UniProtKB/TrEMBL annotation:
This is EamA domain-containing protein. The lineage of its organism: Eukaryota, Sar, Alveolata, Ciliophora, Intramacronucleata. InterPro entries: EmrE-like. The keyword Membrane applies. The chain crosses the membrane at residues 38-60, 142-165, 171-194, 201-221, 233-251, 272-293, 299-320, 332-352, 358-377. Keywords: Membrane, Transmembrane, Transmembrane helix. It comes from the Eukaryota.
Length: 383
C-alpha cells in the first residue's frame, strides 16, 4: 500500500511538472496576445510620438546631459498618463489576456509588487495557490527591476548625447534617428534565438524595405555634412551615429528583459513594471534638475516647456513600445516604430524648412510603403 501511495504521489508530481512545462512552452511560442488591429495602429502612434519627442530634444540638446533633467520632469507627467492607460487597460482587458494574469495584476497598478515579492504557485490542476514568500525568487525578481532602471538610464543618456552630437555636427536629427532601424535588426536576432519568434517572408520583405529607406536617407545627408566642415563635424557625426546605435542596443535589451519576464512570470503586470521603473528614473532626473538649478543652471521657460513635452511624449511612447513588443510581434512592431524617422524628417521640413533631396524623398516613399506593406499582409493574414 505504501508503495502505491508513493507511486501515486510521484505520478502527481510528474503531472504537475508536465503541466507547468506545457504552460511555459505555450508562452514561449511567441503568439500575439492581442490582435494586429490593436498593436499595429499603436505602433504607428508610437512612431509619431517618438518623432515629436525627437524634435523637442533636439531643441534643448545644447545642454547635453543637463537636458535629461527637463526630460525627467516630462517623464513624470508621462508616467501619470501611463497610469491612466494601465487603469483603462485593467478594466477592458480581453478574456485571453485576463486569463494570463493573476487577480493582483488586474487590480490597481501598485499591487503588482505583491506578485513580485510573494510567489503564487499552482496545484496539479493549474489553479493558483495562496501566495508564499521565497527569498531567492524574490531577490531575482527585485534584480529585474534594478536591471530595467539601469538600462533606462543608459539608453536615455545615450539618446540625449546622440542628439547633442548631431546638433553640433549640423547633422539632421531625422536623418540621424534613422539609425534607430538597427533596433529592428537587434530585436529580430535576439527574439529569434531567445523566444523562437520567426518571421514570415512578407514580414522580412517589409523590414528590408524599411532598412533600405532609412539607410538611403542616412547616406543622402552624410556627404553634405562632411564637405562643409571636414574634421570636426565628421567626428561629431560619427559620435552621434555610435550613440544612437548604443541607444537602440540598450532599448532592445530592455524589451527582451520585459518579454522574458512576461513569459516566465506571466502573473506580473509588465506595463506596470515598466511604468514603475520609468517613475524611478524620472524621480532621479527631477532631483538632478533641482541640484542643477541650485548650482545656477539657467534656461528659458520655452526651453523647459519643450524639454518637458519631449520627456512626456517619450515616456508614453516608451511604455507603448514595451506593450506592443510584448503583446505583439516584436520585430514587426519595431519596424513600424522606427518609421518615426520618416515623420521626424517631415516635421523638420515643416518647422525648420529643411527640404529633403531626391534620395531622401525616395527613402520617405519606401519607408511609408514598407509600413503599408506590413499592415496589409498582417490584415490579410487575420482574415
Amino acid at each position: 500500500m505504501a508503495s502505491v501511495v508513493r507511486r501515486s504521489g510521484a505520478v502527481k508530481r510528474v503531472k504537475s511538472e508536465d503541466e507547468e512545462d506545457c504552460r511555459k512552452e505555450e508562452n514561449r511560442k511567441g503568439e500575439e496576445l492581442v490582435s494586429a488591429k490593436i498593436w499595429v495602429p499603436v505602433s504607428l502612434l508610437v512612431s509619431i510620438l517618438n518623432a515629436i519627442a525627437g524634435i523637442c530634444f533636439s531643441y534643448v540638446s545644447k545642454y547635453k546631459i543637463k537636458a535629461g533633467g527637463m526630460q525627467g520632469a516630462g517623464e513624470f507627467l508621462g508616467n501619470s498618463v501611463c497610469l491612466i492607460i494601465i487603469s483603462f487597460q485593467g478594466r477592458y482587458l480581453t478574456p485571453q489576456e485576463t486569463s494570463q494574469l493573476s487577480p493582483q495584476s488586474r487590480s490597481p497598478w501598485l499591487k503588482w509588487l505583491y506578485d513580485i515579492y510573494y510567489i503564487r504557485k499552482r496545484d496539479i490542476h493549474g489553479n493558483l495557490l495562496h501566495a508564499q514568500w521565497e527569498q531567492g525568487i524574490c531577490m531575482r525578481r527585485a534584480l529585474i527591476t534594478v536591471v530595467l532602471v539601469i538600462l533606462t538610464v543608459l539608453l536615455n543618456l545615450a539618446f540625449v548625447l546622440s542628439l547633442y552630437y548631431a546638433t553640433v555636427g549640423f547633422f539632421n536629427s531625422g536623418i540621424m534617428c534613422s539609425l534607430g532601424v538597427t533596433r529592428v535588426i537587434f530585436v529580430s536576432i535576439i527574439f529569434y534565438f531567445m523566444f523562437k519568434q520567426s518571421l514570415k517572408w512578407y514580414e522580412i520583405a517589409g523590414i528590408m524595405i524599411l532598412i533600405i529607406s532609412v539607410v538611403s536617407i542616412l547616406y543622402s545627408g552624410e556627404d553634405k555634412v562632411v564637405n562643409e566642415k571636414q574634421d570636426t563635424q565628421a567626428f561629431f557625426v560619427v559620435l552621434a551615429c555610435l550613440s544612437m546605435i548604443i541607444t537602440m542596443l540598450f532599448s532592445t535589451m530592455r524589451i527582451a528583459v520585459c518579454k522574458y519576464v512576461s513569459l516566465e512570470v506571466p502573473e506580473i503586470n509588465i506595463p506596470a513594471l515598466y511604468n514603475f521603473t520609468m517613475a524611478i528614473y524620472a524621480a532621479g532626473m527631477i532631483i538632478y534638475l533641482i541640484v542643477l538649478i541650485s548650482q545656477g543652471f539657467e534656461f528659458t521657460l520655452i526651453e523647459f516647456s519643450v524639454g518637458t513635452l519631449g520627456g512626456a511624449l517619450y515616456s508614453v511612447a516608451g511604455y507603448l513600445t514595451t506593450y506592443v513588443n510584448v503583446r505583439g510581434k516584436a520585430a514587426i512592431a519595431s519596424a513600424i516604430i522606427e518609421g518615426s524617422t520618416l515623420f521626424q524628417t517631415v516635421f523638420d521640413l515643416l518647422l525648420f524648412g529643411r527640404y529633403p533631396n531626391l534620395a531622401q524623398y525616395i527613402g520617405l516613399l519606401l519607408g511609408f510603403g514598407a509600413v503599408l506593406f506590413i499592415i496589409l499582409f498582417n490584415s490579410l493574414r487575420e482574415k
